[in-house]
Amino acid sequence: MSAPLTAHKAVTEKLNELCKVVEQKFAADCLCFAGPITFGVDDAIRDAVEDLSQRKASAKREKLLFILETTGGYAETALRISDAIRHHYKTVDFLIPGFAMSAGTILVMSGDSIHMDYYSVLGPIDPQVEGSDGSLVPALGYLIRYQDLLRKANQGKISTAEMQLLLAFDQTTLYAYEQARDLSRTLLEDWLAKYKFKDWERTETRMIRVTDAMRRKRAKEVADKLNDVKKWNSHGLGISMEKLRTELKLKIDDFGQDPEVHRLIRGYHGLFTDFMVKMGHKCAVHTSLKYRSLAS
Fold first, then answer.
1. What separation in angstroms does the CA of 92 have from each of 66, 88, 219?
2. Where are the alpha helices (DSSP H) in the chain?
3. Cα–Cα separations (whole angstroms), residue 249 to 191, 204, 242
4. Residue 1 pLDDT class (50, 70, 90 cuts)
C-alpha cells in the first residue's frame, strides 16, 4: 500500500515537476537556492550538484542553470560554491527572479550568462562580515566612516565626539574588513574576465581584437563601479537590469521576453519561496531530485 499523500509531498513533487520543465526549456540541469550565503550553504550546494552529477550519463547535462535569491553573505562561501559547481559543469548560467545582493552579486558574476527581467536586481559588492551580535553587517560602511573621520583628523577639523569614535575603531577588525573588500573585488574581476567576457572577441565600434588584458581592464571597471557604495547610496539598494546594461555595459539576457518562460520561472520560484515561508525555512536548495532545508 502506498504512503498517504501529504501536503509536503504534494508540494515537493510539484516543485520537482516544474524544475524538470525549467531544465528542458534551458537545456540545463537546474538548481534553485534562496537564503543567505553563509558557512554551510556551500556544503549543501555541493551535495546537490553531486547528486545531479551521479545520475546516469544520458540524464546529465553540461550546463547548470542556477536560480538565485539572496540578501548576500560571505565572499569566501561564494568562492567555494563557484568552485563546487564549476567542478561538475562546463557552463553555468545564473537567473535572478528577484534579488541577489552583495556576495550574491559576486557569485552571479562567475556565470557565463546572467538572466534577469525588469523586476530583478543585483547589489553593490559590499562584503558582509559578522558583527558583534553575530548578524551580518556591510563592511564598506565601516571603512568609509573610518576614512572620513581620519581625513577630518588630518585636516584638524574633527570634533571631540568624532575623535572618540575614531579611536574606538579596532584596527584588527578594520584590517579584516579590508581583506573582505579586496577578496570581493579580486573574485569579481577574475570571474568576469574568465567567464562572462570569454566570448568578447572584438570591440563593437572599431572591431579591434580583444586581448586578455582588455578583458581584465573591463572587469576592473565593472568592479570599481559595483564597489562604489556611495554611487548606489545604500548596501541594500537594488541595481536593475537596465542600469547594469546602460551604466555598467553588461550583457544581460531578459527572460521576461519569452512569456512562457517568464510564467514558468515565476511559478516555480514563487512556489519554492512560498513553501519555504510556510515551512519556516530561512534557507533552502532545490533540484529536480530533492528539496533541502538548510536552516530553520
1. 7, 10, 18
2. 7-26, 41-53, 75-88, 103-108, 139-154, 160-168, 171-191, 212-226, 229-232, 241-246, 259-279
3. 16, 12, 10
4. very low
Task: Tell me how far apart the 2 most distant CA atoms of the chain are, in Å.
Answer: 82
How far, in Å, CA of 82 to CA of 27, rounded? 20
User: How far is CA 212 from each of CA 70, 81, 197, 250, rounded to the nearest angstrom?
Assistant: 31, 25, 9, 17
**Adjacency order of strands within the sheet including 63-69:** 253-254, 113-116, 91-95, 63-69, 29-34, 283-287, 291-295
Residue 296's pLDDT is 46
Half-sphere exposure (Cβ direction) of 148: Cα atoms closer than 13 Å: 10
User: What domains are defined for the chain?
Assistant: 7-295 (3.90.226.10)
Segment 14-43 mean pLDDT = 97
Exposed/middle/buried for 214, CB within 10 Å: 0-12, 13-18, 19+?
A: middle
pLDDT tens for each residue of 133-174 = 666 777 777 788 888 888 989 999 999 988 898 888 888 888
Other CB atoms closer than 10 Å to residue 177's CB: what's the count? 22
pLDDT one-digit tens code per residue, 184-232? 999 999 999 999 999 999 888 888 999 999 999 999 999 999 988 777 7
